Amino acid sequence: MADLKELIQTKYKSELFNGNGSLQALSQKGIQLFTEQGIPTVKHEEWKYTRISSVLNKEFSYAAATTAVTKADVDAIRLPGYETANELVFINGIYHPELSVIHSGADALLVQPLSEAVKGPYKNIIDKNLGHSANYHADGINAMNNAFAYQGIFIAVLKNKELQHPLYCYYINDARTASVLSQPRTLIHVGVNAKVYLVEEEITLGTSDSFINRVSEVVVEENANVHIYKIQNEDSHSSCVKTTHVRQLGVSKVNSVTITLNGGIIRNNLNFILEAPGCESNMYGLYCVKGNTHVDNHTVVDNQQPNSLSNELYKGIIDENANGVFNGKIFVRQDAQKTNAYQSNKNVLLSDTATVNTKPQLEIFADDVKCSHGCTIGKLDEDALFYLRARGVGEKAAKALLLHAFAGEILEKIELESIRSYADAIISERLGFEI
Amino acid sequence: MSEMLTTLEQTALSEYKYGWVTNIEADEAPPGLSEDIVRFISAKKNEPEWMLEWRLKAYRQWLKMTEPEWANVQYPKVDYQGIKYYSAPKQKKTLNSLDEVDPELRDTFERLGISLDEQKRLSNVAVDAVIDSVSIATTFKTQLAELGIIFCSMSEAIREHPDLIKKWLGSVVPATDNYFSALNSAVFSDGSFCYIPKGVKSPMELSTYFRINAENTGQFERTLIVAEEGSYVSYLEGCTAPMRDENQLHAAVVEIVALDNAEVKYSTVQNWYPGDKEGKGGIYNFVTKRGICAGVNSKISWTQVETGSAVTWKYPSVILKGDNSVGEFYSVAVTNNKQQADTGTKMMHIGKNTRSRIVSKGISAGYSHNSYRGLVQVGKNAVNARNFSQCDSLLLGDKCGAHTFPYIEVKNSTAQVEHEATTSKIGEDQIFYCNQRGLDTETAVALIINGFAKEVMNQLPMEFAVEAQKLLAISLEGSVG
Asked: Which of A358, A368, A379 minimises the CB distance to B413?
């Protein structure tokens, strides 16, 4: 562990960011907190079920700028529907414009390094929002990213623009020659009346250990509509902590779907801060994992203003030695009267060596609210299985059918057809489901 | 609205009904905690050497521990050197009959509504009454003794049944389990011991009535219940404390052992002084309660109605070790004014076909905070484990909070675990419906709350259910938000 601390500190010193203003302040605050706290242990309540140190005590080199990744490498990993999508390519945490493809015009989409954007008209927005996630994650992992946030990218979807081309972000770690740790950072501003589909995927090239510590902060203005889809399907040597922090500053609607298929240790932090009255937030998640994959979905919904609606449904299918963690937190603040907040977590365990740890948590400070949460852990319904088998469906096929239906509830929330069928195909294959 | 205000005021003004001080000379230890105090307590109670060693070991362990801070409660730190750890009413000789009990003490019990004579004659309940740490009198002892049931004070048990105590004391809650259990193990003053021999079904409900009396005394009770193969017992515990300005500490430990086919039902009505409406004074109730279903087909059931205490920190748990064993937890927790409660349960499924059921009802009013914290754990070998948890919260007023922290850890694919929770307030339409039918708002609220808590109240033995319902009404009447 000392190695990682040293690695980060050396890197920090060697690059010593010489800007000023909010980027500089965040960076300093980040390295300070990281030095104090280090990597969270399982004694940290928020990391109780995820031993992140087991990944981070491996030997990593901090990702360096590289030109080794070619267009052909990127071609190999593009997501379906890419032809009409804006594609942003990050290699080892750094944005590479030469590999990226942007279809939308400059009057609709702006992609700029944070260090540049902070000097322009977006200064105020960046000052106010960059690093806001630290209020919800006062741990060394978030701080570690903050220390290097100045390397990040600012993305703006402009006012009144419904982005026709979805935004695909590929976070590629090049682990072909050595194990690598990278920390992509984005701040996305979705203007008034704007609409965007955001699709994000982490990809590791090569077979060495890879760790991605990504923080994305999304600011949603009034009447905007945002869809965030995340897909994770990697090998066991690829681990990541992904933090998506959404602030809804005006009446707006945000949908999020997180699909986790495989990987090493995967931690998905997803925060929704509902700062305006009447916001709607939907969070959906599906983790269909096996092998030794450890997936930890940590969500926060913070209802601060009246009349908002939040809805959360996470489903898990856990096989072999995999480990599924769900930690959902709903806050309803004193002013957030008439809030409706729902949360549900359903799990199916397929093997006796699989584990589920779930903690659906409610903290309510207002009285005129409707809040509920529920969670279930179990096996497939014997009656449903019997029904199918009585009608001549083999046991294996019957199970696959039921599991596919179980997963379908989440998959159908993905509005982008190409992404939905892509995820569906992988899951069907995993479950042995044939149409 | 004006009507609501008046009813709210009424609640705020309703004083703690059980707040008075009995003037009995107490035999006390000086305030503070040290090895000498532990020795003093042990000597006062004429304990054998092994017991003193046991206490000292716990005390030394306690010194190494730190007070837990994870609970969702805030309170000024307890000054452990400012507490008197021993206070016994001056009663030198051993009591042979109820008539020998100090009349003033008996008056205290009568005002609490548990007059020993009345109890003895009418209600068929054996009472082991505990006032400030020493059992004053134990009734129905002979009747129980005929069946081989041992029901006596802990000090007596240590003297007369050392083998049983040595075997079971600390077997469920080890001295080193947590900060408060270590403290209790070191300085516990008295408590109740209950042993039900093989195949015996206790013909009456066993009951103990705790009461904190002298100023600045901690109450450290120790209860141990052992139910041998095929036996059954229902045990009642009730608590009240007089009105005090300062915060008093109550750190009790309750251990239950249920062997093959045994069943233990443990019911609590906790009504310690909750502090005044400014949050001044009140009891700190830091209690460790745990039972183990050690044998097959055994069952342990906790039922609690928590209306008192300034700060509550309490998680009655069941370790489901025996195959086919059953654990149950029914709770109503009410907080008003500035009370804080962090309470819940732990169900640890270890054996095959184990089942557990959790029903928790939280009611918060005023500026209070009410948290449910629970753990359901299904181990690798707990084939066909089954759990159902339900946590409902009712909020009365917009300054209070309701919190739920359920932890669920499952390592077996045949387990079936369900958890559900809701938070809501009393609907205006519900009140309106009642008003329309001639019930005033206050009665309507009482009616709705009783309905809300009914599932738990139904689990209580009759005598307790009546008292619990009264307590609910006293704690909450009129606090419609």
From this structure: A379
Encode chain A in three state secondary structure. CHHHHHHHHHHHHHHCCCCCCHHHHHHHHHHHHHHHHCCCCCCCHHHCCCCCHHHHCCCCEECCCCCCCCHHHHHHHCCCCHHHCEEEEEECCEECCCCCECCCCCCCEEEEEHHHHCCCCCHHHHHHHCCHHHHCCCCHHHHHHHCCHHHCEEEEECCCCECCCCEEEEEEEECCCCCEEECCEEEEEECCCCEEEEEEEEEEECCCCEEEEEEEEEEECCCCEEEEEEEEECCCCEEEEEEEEEEECCCCEEEEEEEEEECCEEEEEEEEEECCCCCEEEEEEEEEECCCCEEEEEEEEEECCCCCEEEEEEEEEECCCCEEEEEEEEEECCCCCCCEEEEEEEEEECCCCCEEEEEEEEEECCCCCEEEEEEEEECCCHHHHHHHHHCCCCHHHHHHHHHHHHHHHHHCCCCCHHHHHHHHHHHHHHHCCCC
Nearest to B416 among A350, A368, A378 (CB): A378
Gap from A289 CA to chain B (nearest CA, Å)? 14
Q: How far is B348 from chain A (nearest CA, A)?
A: 14
Q: Which of A6-20, A133-147, B261-275 has the lowest mean pLDDT?
A: A6-20
Work out the minimum CA distance from A124 to partner chain B, whole angstroms. 35
Q: Which of B398, B404, B481 sits opposite A362 (nearest CB)?
A: B404
Residues A189 and A46 in one domain: yes
Asked if pLDDT for residue B263 goes beyond 80, the answer is: yes
Structurally, how many domains does chain A consist of? 2
Do A247 and A386 lie in one domain? The reply is: no
A377 and B417: CB-CB below 8 Å? yes
Structural domain ending residue among the three candidates A257, A276, A295: A276
Q: Do A364 and B393 touch (CB under 8 A)?
A: yes
> In whole numbers, what is the pLDDT of chain B averaged over residues?
79
Q: Do B403 and A362 touch (CB under 8 A)?
A: yes
Is the residue at A303 inside a domain? no
Please give the share of chain B, as a percent, with pLDDT higher than 70. Answer: 77
Confidence of residue B449 (pLDDT cuts 50, 70, 90): confident
Cβ neighbours of B400 in A, within 8 Å: 365, 367
Whole-number pLDDT of residue B124: 42
Q: What is the mean pLDDT of residues A219-240?
A: 93
| Domain final residue, candidates A276, A311, A331 | A276
In terms of domains, do A132 and A257 share one? yes
- What domain range is A413 assigned to? 381-435
